[in-house]
């Protein structure tokens, strides 16, 4: 069985002094989605960039914008990211007490809702909201920084979520984020992932097209 695999380079590892050019380059290199990591220095121990940067980049590409919110509280910021040009907005199950309400808000804004699970969060957390999401993102590092090592302990969770998605009969993307390389990508794909986020493994290399092709390679 081969499921088409999408590659979503994470802008976090790009050259921040040349963001527009980096986005154009990654588009030309064959990326499917652009992954945008939003960090608040509170939910995660790092600060990245906000909706103004997302908006500034929107005109540079037609790739879907896959916005990964690592902020808490999150609800008040959803309209700003929707207006900035996000296509998909994903938030952490751990970010607040009202995951269901936040997902409803994303839907009401006309965007595609996703839920993210930290390494210590079980797959079962998404079961009550499976009917509301179009994407489930499994963190294979603790969020906050690029360049960390892939947590192999998350592979059974990816497989469990793939089974849950198949059982639901719904069209839900299963994305993996953190430490994805040409070596770990086949493990993710083998466990059932169909979208791979990669920062360092793409932007940290001289040939973006080769890096993206290498990540996709595991799909056969
Ligand atoms: C981590 C971010 C990731 C990060 C991945 O909190 O969510 O998207 O940029 O970076 P790499 O691919 O270098 O692990
Ligand atoms: Zn991310």
TrEMBL record:
Keyword Transmembrane attributed: no
Species per Swiss-Prot/TrEMBL record: Teichococcus aestuarii
Enzyme class name: isomerase
Keywords: Carbohydrate metabolism, Cobalt, Isomerase, Manganese, Metal-binding, Zinc
Active-site positions on this chain: 37, 177
Pfam families, sorted: Ribul_P_3_epim
BP term (GO), one: pentose catabolic process
Binding site for substrate: 10, 68, 144-147, 177-179, 199-200
CC cofactor note: Binds 1 divalent metal cation per subunit.
Cofactor: Zn(2+); Fe(2+); Mn(2+); Co(2+)
InterPro entries reported in the protein's UniProt record: Aldolase_TIM, Ribul_P_3_epim, Ribul_P_3_epim-like, RibuloseP-bd_barrel
GO molecular function, one term: metal ion binding
Catalysed reactions listed for this entry: D-ribulose 5-phosphate = D-xylulose 5-phosphate
Chain positions recorded as a divalent metal cation binding sites: 35, 37, 68, 177
Pathway info: Carbohydrate degradation
GO cellular component, one term: cytoplasm
NCBIfam families cross-referenced by the UniProt entry: PRK05581.1-4, rpe
Family in the record: Belongs to the ribulose-phosphate 3-epimerase family.
Top-level taxon in the UniProt lineage: Bacteria
Protein name in UniProt: Ribulose-phosphate 3-epimerase
Taxonomic lineage: Bacteria, Pseudomonadati, Pseudomonadota, Alphaproteobacteria, Acetobacterales
């Amino acid at each position: 069985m081969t499921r088409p695999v999408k590659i979503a380079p994470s802008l976090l590892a790009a050259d921040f002094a040349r963001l527009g050019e980096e986005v154009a380059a990654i588009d030309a290199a064959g990326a499917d989605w652009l992954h945008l990591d939003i960090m608040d220095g509170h939910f995660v121990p790092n600060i990245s960039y906000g909706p103004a940067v997302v908006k500034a980049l929107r005109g540079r590409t037609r790739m879907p914008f896959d916005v990964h919110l690592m902020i808490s509280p999150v609800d008040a910021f959803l309209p700003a990211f929707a207006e900035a040009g996000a296509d998909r907005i994903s938030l952490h199950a751990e970010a607040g007490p009202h995951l269901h309400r936040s997902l409803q808000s994303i839907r009401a804004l006309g965007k595609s809702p996703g839920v993210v699970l930290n390494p210590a969060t079980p797959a079962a957390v998404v079961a009550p909201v499976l009917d509301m999401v179009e994407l489930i993102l499994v963190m294979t590092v603790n969020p906050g920084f690029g360049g960390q090592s892939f947590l192999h302990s998350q592979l059974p969770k990816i497989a469990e979520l793939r089974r849950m998605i198949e059982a639901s009969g719904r069209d839900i993307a299963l994305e993996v984020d953190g430490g994805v390389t040409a070596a770990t990508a086949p493990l993710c794909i083998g466990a059932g992932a169909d979208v791979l986020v990669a920062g360092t493994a793409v932007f940290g290399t001289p040939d973006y097209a080769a890096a993206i092709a290498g990540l996709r390679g595991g799909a056969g």
